[in-house]
Amino acid sequence: MGLLELCEEVFGTADLYRVLGVRREASEGEVRRGYHKVSLLVHPDRAGEGDKEDATRRFQILGKVYSVLSDKEQRAVYDEQGTVDEDSAALSQDRDWEAYWRLLFKKISLEDIQAFEKTYKGSEEELADIKQAYLDFKGDMDQIMESVLCVQYTEEPRIRNIIQQAIDAREVPSYNAFVKESKQKMNARKRRAQEEAKEAEISRKELGLDEGMDNLKAAIQFSQRKMEENTKHATVEDTVEYHLFLIPDDSKDPEKHKEILQKYIERIMTHFAPVLAPYIWQNQPFNLKYKPGKGGVPAHIFGITKFGDNIEDEWFIVYIIKQITKEFPELVARIEDNDGEFLLIEAADFLPKWLDPDNSTNRVFFYHGELCIIPVPRKSGAGSWSPSTPPTILQALNIISTHPEKIVASESIQAAVNRRIREYPEKIQASLHRAHCFLPAGIVAVLKQHPRLVAAAVQAFYLRDPVDLRACRIFKTFLPETRIMTSVTFTKCLYAQLVQQRFVPDRRSGYMLPSPCHPQYRAHELGMKLAHGFEILCSKCSPHFSDSKKSLITTSPLWAGFLESLKKNDFFKGLLEGSAAYQERLEMAKNYFQLSVNRPEGCLAMSPGEEILTLLQTIPINIEELKKEEDNLPQEDDDQWLDLSPDQLDQLLQEAAGKKKSKAISKEEEDQNYDLSQVSESMKAFISKVSTHKGAELPREPSEAPITFDADSFLNYFDKILGPGPQASDSDDLDEEEFECLDSDDDLDLGTQEPEEETTLKGTLDDLKSYMAQMDQELALTSIGKSFTTRKQVEPESPTAKNNSDEEESGTGEPALAPVDVDLNLVSNILDSYSSQAGLAGPASNLLQSMGVQLPDNTDHRTSSKPRKY
User: Fold this and answer.
1) At 41, which helix (H) or strand (E)?
2) pLDDT for res 769
3) Closest-CA residue to 413 (of 333, 344, 331, 514)
4) Cβ atoms of 523 and 435 closer than 8 Å
5) Alpha-carbon distance 363 to 376, whole Å?
6) DSSP letter string over 438-467?
7) What is the pLDDT of residue 280?
8) Rounded Cα–Cα distance for residues 336 and 771 (Å)
9) Which stretches of the chain drop beneath a pLDDT of 50?
10) How many CB atoms lie within 10 A of CB 679?
C-alpha cells in the first residue's frame, strides 16, 4: 500500500499538505511547524497501551509525509504529478522515525514554551498566522481561536481587533461569519473554553500532578483525549455515514477478510451502477471503502457522503443501503448523520417509550431489507440476549445473527421510514429539472461528457466570495463569445439555488444580459450564473496543473470485469455498441468507475476544476456542430413547482406527517364530521392527564386513569386546618404542638369529632360558602363575570322557573346567580382563540390537532363577540 493510500486510510485524505494542516504554498518553516504540531497529537508516548500500535503506525506515516514535503525535489515531483517515489531512501520501512523526530525537535520544557510565547505574541509571524487562519476558515472565529498558537479565550478581543484592522486595510476580505457573528455564538464559545479549562484542572488533579511542568502535561493529555473524543463522536455537518458489516465474521486472517470485503464493494457498486451512475449528487457521491478494525469495531465497509442542502441525497442513500442488505443478506448496515439516529427521528411519533437518545446507540440497523431495533429487556421475562445498556457493535452483530426475528421494528416505525424512500428509484427522474441555458461551448462539451459537474459549478457560484469573483472579472477559460443555447439537466435543488440568486455580472466579464422581457432572458441568466461557477472552479487549479494525475481507466485490471457486469445488468439498455447514445453511457460508466470503484494508490483524486481542464484538453469541441443542435433542443420543464400555493403546502405537510389524502366529501358530510363536544371532552382528558417533569403529555392509553379529586374531603381538611378552635388565638403563628397535631391524619377524621366541634366546623363551612357567594355576586357585576355564559342565557326559561326566579329576587333584593356552563364557555373561548389565528399556526390549533380534534375552516365574520348556541 502506497503512502497516499495510507494517508487516505489513516488521516482521511490523500493530500499530504492537508495531513500536516498547511497550505500548498507553505514555506519550509510552515511545513516543519505543521509536522511538529500534528506529531504531538499522534505521538505514541501520548497514547494508551491499547492504542500504542495504531499510534505508532500513524506516527510513522506522518514522518514519511514530512520527509517528502521537506525534500525540495520530492516536493516538486509531488506538486507537479501528485505522486511520490515509494522506492526512495526517505520512505524506507527500516527508518527509525522516533529517532528522526528527536533529531528534528529537541525536548521542550515549560520555560521553552513560555519563552516562545513571549516572542511569538505580537510578532509578524503571529499576524501572518492570524490572517491566514481568517482566510482558511472564512471568518469562523471558532476555528480561528482553535488554530492560532498560544491563544487563550480571554485574548479573543485582541484577535478580533487584529482581524478588523486587516479588513479595514483591505488586506483580507470581509466575511459575514466574522462581521455578523451573533452574541449567542460568542458566548457559547466562551462557555466551552471555560468548561475545557475546568476539565483540564480536574484531569490534573485526577492524575495527581503538581503545578508547572506536570500541569502542562495534564493539559496536553486532556487536549489529546478531547480531540479523540471529538473525532470519534463528531460528524461533519450535513453529512451521512454508513457502515456495512459482514455476519457471520468467521475470518481470522485480516488480509483475507480485507480481500473479501473489497470483493463485496466491487459487487455492490456494480450491481447498483444503473441507478448510481447517472445520479447527480449535490456534493459528494455514494462511495464505499474498506475500513480496518479498531477499538472493538470489526473491519467493515464504510462510506461517507456530504449531502449539503439536498436532503433527498441522504434519503436516496437510505434506500440504497436498505436494498444492499436485501440483495446481500449476509450484510448488516447502520446509518447515521450529524443528528445521530435520524431514522428514529423520522419515526419519532411511533417509538416505544423506553427508546431515547441516551440508549439508542448501536441499536438501529438494516438487515435483510428490514429496519431492526435491538430492544431493552422488559421487567418480567427478560431474555439474556437483550442488553439493558447500549450494546457494542460486536454485541449488536451477535444479537442480530442469533435473534433476527425478535428485533424487527414495528410496522408503524417501518412505515414511517419507508414513506420517505418508497418512491425510489422512480423518484430520481421526478427530482430532475431540465432547462435551457446560454453557455460557452466548452461548458456544453464538458456537461455532455460529465453531467454531474453541473452540481460543482452551481455550488461554486452559490457559495462564492469576493476572492472567487476576482477570477470572473475577465474570463480566461470560458469566453462569452462562444456561447450557444443548450439543454442542461439539474436537480430541483440545484436549479432552485441557481434561480433564486440575484447577481449582476462585472461589465468586464462580457456576460451582458438582455432585457428581462426578452423571451430567452431566463436562459441567458442561468447560463451567465453557471459560467461563473465553472470559471471559479477552474481558477482554483494550480497554474502548474498537469493531467498526469489522471489515471488510465481502461488499463485497470478491474475495468473489464466491471464493464461485463454492467452489460449483464442491462446498463446500456440494448443500445448498439459504438452509437452516440452507447458512447454517452460508456463515458458515464467510466466516470462512475473512476469515482466509486477504481482508486489507484499513487493517484490523487482530481478536483472538479482539474477534471474540467482535463476534459477541455482531451475532448474535441466543434462549435458549428453544437450550434446545429440548438434547433432540436428538448422542451424545458415547467418551473411552477418553485411557487407553492397554500393548498399544495398543506398537502405536503400532511404527506410529511404521514396522512393520506382524503377523498372529496360534500359540505353536509363535512359539517357532520365535526363534533364540538370533542373539544370539551378532549380538554378535560388533557387536564386530567398525569404528566411528568418532562412536560405536559397527551393521554395515550385508556388505562391511564385521570386524577381523582374529592372536593368534600378537601374542604373537611381545609376546615380543620383553618377553622377556629374553642380557644382561638389572635396570633397568626401556630406553636409546635399544633403543627404536630396537623401532621396526623387521624386528627382530621370528622367522624371522631365531638358534637360541639362538628357544629363549629359546619358553621365555618357555611361562612366560607357565604363568602364565596358574596364574591360571586361582586364578580357578576364586573366584566369578568359578564364574560362567562351561564346556563340561564342559553336555556329557554319555563314559566315555573320564571316565577321561582322572581320569588328569589324579591326575597333577597338581588338577582340569583345562574351556574356557569363550563363546557360552553370552554368551547367558545377555544373557538375565539382559533378564529384569532386567522388560519395560521397557534396554541388552539396545535393543542386540538395533537388531541385529534378537527375543526372546520372559519367562515364566521360576525362583529359580535357573544358566543353562538351549539
Assistant:
1) helix 28-42
2) 82
3) 344
4) yes
5) 9
6) EEEHHHHHHHHH-TTHHHHHHHHHHT--HH
7) 92
8) 64
9) 207, 209-217, 222, 224, 227-235, 381-382, 546-552, 600-604, 660-665, 670, 701-707, 725-752, 805, 807-812, 861-870
10) 24
What integer pLDDT is reported at residue 489 of this predicted model?
93
Measured from the Cβ of residue 66, the count of other Cβ atoms closer than 10 Å reads 24
- Quick one: CA dihedral 693, 694, 695, 698, positive or negative? negative
Name the CA dihedral angle for 345, 347, 349, 351, rounded to a multiple of 10 degrees. -90
Q: How far is CA 484 from the centre of its chain?
A: 40
What gap in Å lies between CA 91 and CA 84, rounded to an integer? Answer: 10
Tally of CB atoms within 10 A around 373: 20
If residue 721 lies in a helix (H) or strand (E), which one and from where to where? helix 711-722
| DSSP-assigned letter for residue 12 | S
The angle subtended at Cα 737 by Cα 733 and Cα 740, nearest 5°, is 100
Each residue's pLDDT tens digit, 781-790: 787 777 777 6
Residue 602 confidence (pLDDT)? 39
Residue 555: all three cell numbers together: 488499463
Spatial neighbors of 32 by CB under 8 A, at least 6 apart, are 66, 70, 104
Residue 320 burial (C-beta neighbours within 10 Å; 0-12, 13-18, 19+): buried
Distance CA 79, CA 76 (A): 5
The whole-angstrom separation of Cα 530 and Cα 508 is: 17
Both ends of the chain: CA-CA distance in Å?
Answer: 81
Q: How much is the CA Rg of the chain, to the nearest whole Å?
A: 37
CA atoms of 332 and 367, how far apart (whole Å) = 5
| Alpha helices by DSSP H, 207-296 | 213-233, 254-271, 273-276
Q: φ and ψ at 289, to 5 degrees?
A: -150, 160
